[in-house]
Write a structure and sequence with these properties.
It is a single chain. The protein has 171 residues and is of the alpha+beta class. It has one domain: Histidine kinase-like ATPase, C-terminal domain (Heat Shock Protein 90). The protein contains four helices and six strands. Helix 2 packs antiparallel against helix 3 and helix 3 runs antiparallel to helix 4. The longest helix is centred in the middle third of the chain and has 19 residues. The termini are far apart.
């Protein structure tokens, strides 16, 4: 099996989910390639289904996709690099789900970017503001960890904030 196949979605063997209802965790390793986005979403959906945290699936998969795609785009210089490893951590404790993505680049940290009205990029931090209760980044020995947390106690939420306000129609 080649290195890329080993990294795509292979659970990190030394770490297995806890059986305690108060604390559960999973770790996945992915190659820094575009295909890892959909695989990471599927892993999050499967784990949250197994943990019976169905109400967190939509927001968690969206935020996971954003974290993974940003790491692929920025940490690997834009096109992905199958030699770089991304580590996805899912941790559920005390009613809070933490989604954390670690990549080997300690220099390129998330920043707020001004974008044009029709831009197809630059929505990462607005998505974090809209869907996560907390988020952040910290430099670690092996690069950086970008994380977000979603509190189960906030669900079901009546509605999520709009990222872009619709234009009002004039009569």
């Amino acid at each position: 099996m080649d290195r890329r196949a080993e990294l795509l979605g292979a659970p990190y063997a030394p770490h297995s989910p806890s059986t305690s209802p108060e604390y559960k965790s999973r770790v996945f390793l992915f190659a820094s390639v575009p295909e890892s986005c959909s695989l990471a979403r599927r892993c999050v959906r499967d784990v949250l289904t197994a943990w019976r945290l169905l109400e967190l699936i939509e927001a968690s998969t969206l935020l996971t996709s954003e974290l993974v795609s940003n790491a692929i785009k920025h940490a690997s210089g834009g096109g992905g690099d199958s030699e770089l490893t991304l580590k996805l951590l899912l941790i559920y404790a005390a009613g809070t789900l933490r989604v954390e993505l670690r990549d080997p680049d300690p220099v390129r940290l998330p920043t707020w970017r001004d974008k044009g009205e029709l831009a197809t990029y630059g929505y990462g931090l607005p998505l974090m503001f809209a869907y996560a209760d907390r988020f952040g980044v910290h430099v670690i020995e092996a690069g950086k960890a970008v994380w977000c947390e979603i509190d189960l106690s906030d669900y079901p939420r009546p509605s999520r904030p709009r990222l872009v306000e619709p234009e009002e129609k004039s009569s």
